[in-house]
Each structure stands twice: as C-alpha cells, then as structure tokens.
C-alpha cells in the first residue's frame, strides 16, 4: 500500500521552483498532498512543473503554481486566496523563499541596499506569508519557516544575511504564541549548507576576489557536509506532519 501520510491535505510552499522549496513540494505531492507552489521565476516554475508531471504524474490535479514575490503583500494575499479557492483551507505551509548575500563585506563597507534586499525577501516575505497563512489555516495546522544556521551563529561579512535570519526566529516565536490557542504550530528549520545554486554561488569580497564554499572546508554545517535539498524537504515534512504534533516554537538545527 502506498505511503500517503499527507493524503488530501493542503500545503502552501514558497521558493517552490528550485532547491529546497521544490524538493519540499515534490515530497508532499508524492505523499498525497495538494500543494500550492509560489516562486518569482516563471521559467523555473515551468521547469519544476514539467519535472513533477513527468515524475509524479498522479499529482497533476493536486497542484497550483503561481508567480509571487513574497515581499509584496498583495501578491501573497492573492496567492493564498487562490490556493484556498482551489483546494480549501490550509493544513500547513513551508516558507522557504530566501535570498543570500552576493558579497562578503564588513558593515562599514556594506551598502544599505544589500540589507534592504535581504530584509525584503527573508523578513518581510516571511511576515507576509505568515499573515495570510495564519488567516487561512485550519485549527491544528503547522507552519515551517526556513531560517539558517546563521539564525543562531554569526560570521564576519554576513551581517545582512545573519540579521535577516535572526529575525525569522523572532517571527517564528511570536507566531507560535499567537497560533497556540487554535493548536497551530510554528517552527523554524535552520539548516547549514544546502547543495543548491544559491548557496554555492561565488560571493564578492572587498579585495575584489570571489569566494565560495569548498567541498572540504568552511562548510557551515555541524556535520561538515552539504545537505541535499531532499533531506531538508524530509525535515520540513516531519515538522508539518502528525508525528511532530508536540513540537512547537522550536529552532531545529
């Protein structure tokens, strides 16, 4: 018998066109869920959709895809409204959409626009999603926000990213208290290095050279290895599912 722990449950996933967001959407769809996928790239979303149709053909009627910039509140509201109109109220959500620094500069040299860019997606985006997800989620639902190992630690030159990921922990804790009377759980998954294009991108340093995480050193993870997007998806699914009903307000590293 097929293992379908999320049969007919409704989930919203951001950053769903690639990386951990796409892996999460695929994981849920393969286990019977109805999934609404949001992303900013129409091209990447189309590729993701084609791959799912090929690999999980039985899920084609359980999907909704929508272009959505999570930093824009009206777009998030429209996406969640469309999701509820198609599938009904949410059982859960995974807020995976994120941006990283493309340069490692000290605060004294870091342009303010870098802080604003990461804040808009990582912090404002998570806030916007929480706002409309919590308005449209069933009692007993679960929301997972994606923080980072940098939600707990810090690194020179990473002030903008660290600040944005620390903020997600604050949002998660507040939302968990606000959702508790309805049995809504809100947790943060805080992974280290995920093997995605975003994490592997070279970043500019003040000396004009580019730096990137190597296979054998400087991997920001306690296990000192890259996490596969599918491993992150499985962790998110655990936090969304019934096996973690007593897990709430946690920062899972």
Write a concise synopsis of the structure shown:
Keywords: NAD, NADP, Oxidoreductase. The chain is α/β, with parallel strands linked by helices and 253 residues long. Helices cover 40% and strands 18% of the residues.
Rg of Cα set? 18 Å
Order of helices and strands: EHEHEHEEHEHEHEEHE
Q: What is the terminal separation in angstroms? A: 33 Å
Provide mean pLDDT, rounded: 93
State the name of the first-level CATH class: Alpha Beta
Q: Estimate nothing, just give the exact number of structural domains.
A: 1
Shape: globular
Please identify the structural class as seen in this structure.
alpha/beta
Helix content estimate: 40-55%
The total of helices stands at 7
CATH architecture name? 3-Layer(aba) Sandwich
**CATH fold descriptor:** Rossmann fold
Strands of the widest sheet, in order across it, are 3-2-1-4-6-7-10
Largest sheet: 7 strands, parallel
CATH superfamily: NAD(P)-binding Rossmann-like Domain
- Outline the low-pLDDT stretches: none
Quote the beta fraction.
Answer: 15-25%
Family: Belongs to the short-chain dehydrogenases/reductases (SDR) family.
GO molecular function: oxidoreductase activity
InterPro entries: KR_dom (IPR057326), NAD(P)-bd_dom_sf (IPR036291), Sc_DH/Rdtase_CS (IPR020904), SDR_fam (IPR002347)
Protein name: Putative-dichloro--cyclohexadiene--diol dehydrogenase protein
């Amino acid at each position: 018998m097929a293992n379908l722990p999320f049969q007919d449950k409704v989930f919203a996933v951001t950053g769903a066109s690639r990386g951990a967001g796409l892996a999460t959407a695929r994981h849920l769809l393969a286990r019977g869920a109805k999934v609404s996928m949001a992303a900013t790239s129409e091209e990447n979303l189309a590729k993701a959709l084609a791959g799912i149709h090929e690999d999980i053909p039985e899920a084609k009627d359980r999907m909704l895809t929508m272009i959505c910039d999570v930093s824009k509140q009206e777009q998030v509201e429209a996406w969640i409204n469309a999701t509820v109109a198609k599938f009904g109220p949410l059982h859960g959500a995974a807020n995976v959409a994120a941006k990283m620094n493309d340069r490692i500069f000290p605060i004294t040299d870091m342009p303010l626009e870098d802080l604003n860019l990461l804040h808009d997606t990582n912090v404002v985006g998570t806030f916007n999603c929480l706002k409309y997800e919590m308005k449209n989620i069933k009692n007993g639902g679960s929301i997972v926000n994606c923080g980072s190992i940098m939600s707990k630690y810090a690194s020179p030159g990473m002030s903008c990213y660290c600040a944005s990921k620390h903020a997600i922990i604050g949002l998660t804790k507040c939302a968990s208290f606000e959702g508790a009377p309805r049995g809504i759980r809100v947790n943060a998954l805080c992974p280290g290095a995920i093997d995605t294009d975003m994490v592997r991108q070279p970043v500019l340093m003040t000396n004009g050279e580019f730096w990137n995480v190597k296979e054998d050193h400087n991997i920001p993870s306690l296990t000192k290895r890259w996490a596969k997007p599918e491993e992150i998806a499985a962790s998110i699914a655990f936090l969304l599912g019934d096996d973690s009903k007593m897990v709430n307000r946690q920062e899972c590293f």
